[in-house]
Amino acid sequence: MNRVAQQLTGWTLIEAKGKPFSEVFNIINEKTGEKCTDPLIKVIQEGKTMELENHTLLIKKNNDKISIEDSAAPVLDEHGNIKGAVIVFRDNTEKKERQERIEYLSYHDQLTGLYNRRYMEDSLKRLDTERNLPLCIMMMDINGLKMANDAFGHKMGDRLLITSAEILLSVTRADDILCRVGGDEFMLILPQTDNETASKIKKRISEKTKNTLLDSVVVSLAVGYEIKTQFFQDINDILRQADSNMYKDKFKHGREMRLKTVNNILKDIDKKYSHEKEHREKVAEYSLMIGQALEFDENSMEELKLAAMVHDVGKIKVSGVLLNKKSKPTKEEWEELKKHSVTGYNILKAVDEYAGIAEEVLYHHEHWDGKGYPKKLKGEEIPLISRIISVADAFQAMTGDRPYKEKKTAKEAIEEIKNCSGKQFDPEIAKIFIELLKKEVINENEI
């Protein structure tokens, strides 16, 4: 026995001397636990080189077990007679773990740990038998995954996927097979499942998701299923119909989820930033004054009000510490703050009810002279509603409570708007707004 053999078996050469070979080289089948054929005896009997079977464990002297691979070869004398054998073995624990990992990944989704599409396809072939009828195929799709990714980043998208997978796992039975079959799609294969049982499972999924929130994001799954009741039915037709039913459900409930998420975001911003609700309402009030002066029709006024009320929705990604900071933001912090208009756009464009005003929110920090953000638009390239919100937002920011700025008087804020007219603000809108302030908001003695 060389040094490595002594380490792997736990026997020293002195201890092993005189012992039966099978006592020192004690090997069993990993799966059955049965003792393996002694390779030494087999080689001497058959006179040829052999290798151990797969799944062989070596039981060390202290009863620890290690996975090994080994080969045995006969030793011949000068006449070709067998006089012994050489046994070579090695610890293949790491190799086995790598192989198992590769095999696991080939059938599992790395993020959620669920089975993947490949496993699903194999399982469908295996389970598509008469004894499994009625065979239910249930398709699930996450409502708003793209919105979560765009607005909050891929870490939130991953959290949403993992949470959805956990919810689905919690409603499955022992024989059910749950797979992640696409980016935001899951599939349940439910053997011996009739319509009543499938309906109950769908209801449980709905009940579990409606009470689950990830920060501001509502967890919501569109669910559709179809049942194969006769063996002659094509399983691919069942799959297509389940998918179609899922998309009908998505159309019905996806909109509701996205609206709830926007409302949750606004509530969460109010919690993070104590002055935000008042700021939104005042900006909307000032914006509507300007819209009325420009003789907006009813639809345009509604659009303006909606955009003004959600113009800072992107602040949900800005830390509460930064929003409430009492000193002036650093350059890096200012860059983080500036991202809120793009975040707001990404949130709103995913919601039908808000998609029409997403660009107005995106551009409400653009400047008339082209020195604003995020696109450095200039003059009338900037949407009219964005230009209106820009001046209303600035006035309220100057005259309202802000942690890092001393509040200005109305007179001081108007002077600032005058000074920035034609630079930061559309000069015509700035002029109209100042006149409106003098008439409707500010006591003449203050001007």
Q: Could you explain how this protein is built, in words?
A:
The chain is α+β, with helices and mostly antiparallel strands. It folds into 3 domains: about 5-90, PAS domain (Beta-Lactamase), CATH 3.30.450.20; about 110-260, Alpha-Beta Plaits; about 275-445, Hypothetical protein af1432. About 50% of the residues lie in helices and about 15% in strands. The chain is elongated and about 120 Å long. The relative contact order is 0.06. The mean pLDDT is about 90.
Write a brief structural summary.
The protein is of the alpha+beta class and 447 residues long. It is built from 20 helices and 11 strands.
Name given to the CATH homologous superfamily of the largest domain: Hypothetical protein af1432
CATH class membership of the largest domain:
Mainly Alpha
Can you tell me the CATH architecture of the largest domain?
A: Orthogonal Bundle
Number of helices: 20
- How many strands in all? 11
Provide the low-confidence segments as ranges. none
Strand content: 5-15%
As a whole number of angstroms, the C-alpha radius of gyration is 35 Å
- Structural class of the secondary structure composition? alpha+beta
Helical proportion, percent range: 40-55%
CATH topology of the largest domain: Hypothetical protein af1432
